Amino acid sequence: MPEGHTIHRLAARHNELLRGEVVNATSPQGRFSAGAALLSGSKLEFAEAYGKHLLHHYDFGLTLHVHLGLYGKFSDGALPAPPPIGELRMRLSNDHHWIDLRGPSACELLDGASEKALLDRLGIDPLRPDADPKLAFARLKKRAAPLGALLLDQSIIAGAGLIFVMECLYRAGLHPSTPGTALTPKGWKQIWGDLVALMAAAVVSGRIDTVRPKHMPEAMGRAPRVDRHGGEVYVYRRAGQPCLVCGTPIARGELNGRNTYWCPACQS
């Protein structure tokens, strides 16, 4: 599932292509036909991301909500658009560009009350300027569940996925099983600062790099990481490989059905 930085990149891209423009909307697949009919002829005021949710705000009072889930994907380009082949949920276009959406877990129109209900269910998004880290800490601190699970809980932190969570815990020297009640203000400051900085950098670059400059391949004289997720990381999907700091083999476990990764020495 795409992490929050990807959704923020999509919001920026959609603003670049369609903001302030009257759009035409279709649903070649048919599953969003009623919504597309309502959208067509309206103007996109702006797009924004909140956690892993993309919101398009239109001038006729409804908001397009998209959650990509595990299989959703956007593509776009300059007109003319390609033939609508396959399971194409929605196509948006103006006089110059097209945007296609395939396989989302949610593609729906929300009124003001429904949008508020959605946002009220979400936690704090580190990439948003209105984020309140004190509120997120208060939610974490009162829970005895493991931090590895709490930081992935979208009702606490919106947008952070497994890569960012595992890497921020490593950088803070905290084991994924550390209970939320044991998190100190200092530890939270480290985690929050890393979430903000690392996710913001990923918005710019389009990849997730979490290692400090002294641990990058060129600084250490090592080969770059080869992985379909890309980016240089300390622990994520590095089970059995040596820690970049101390050389201890990275461990892997499971927490609430999700893989976890940590260094037994650096995160003891």
TrEMBL record:
SUPFAM superfamilies hit by this protein: Glucocorticoid receptor-like (DNA-binding domain), N-terminal domain of MutM-like DNA repair proteins, S13-like H2TH domain
TM regions (residue ranges): none
Catalytic activity: 2'-deoxyribonucleotide-(2'-deoxyribose 5'-phosphate)-2'-deoxyribonucleotide-DNA = a 3'-end 2'-deoxyribonucleotide-(2,3-dehydro-2,3-deoxyribose 5'-phosphate)-DNA + a 5'-end 5'-phospho-2'-deoxyribonucleoside-DNA + H(+)
Matches recorded under Gene3D superfamilies: 1.10.8.50, MutM-like, N-terminal
Any one Gene Ontology BP term: response to oxidative stress
EC number: 4.2.99.18
Cofactor(s) needed by this chain: Zn(2+)
Protein name according to UniProt: DNA-(apurinic or apyrimidinic site) lyase
Gene source species: Rhizocola hellebori
Lineage of the species this protein comes from: Bacteria, Bacillati, Actinomycetota, Actinomycetes, Micromonosporales
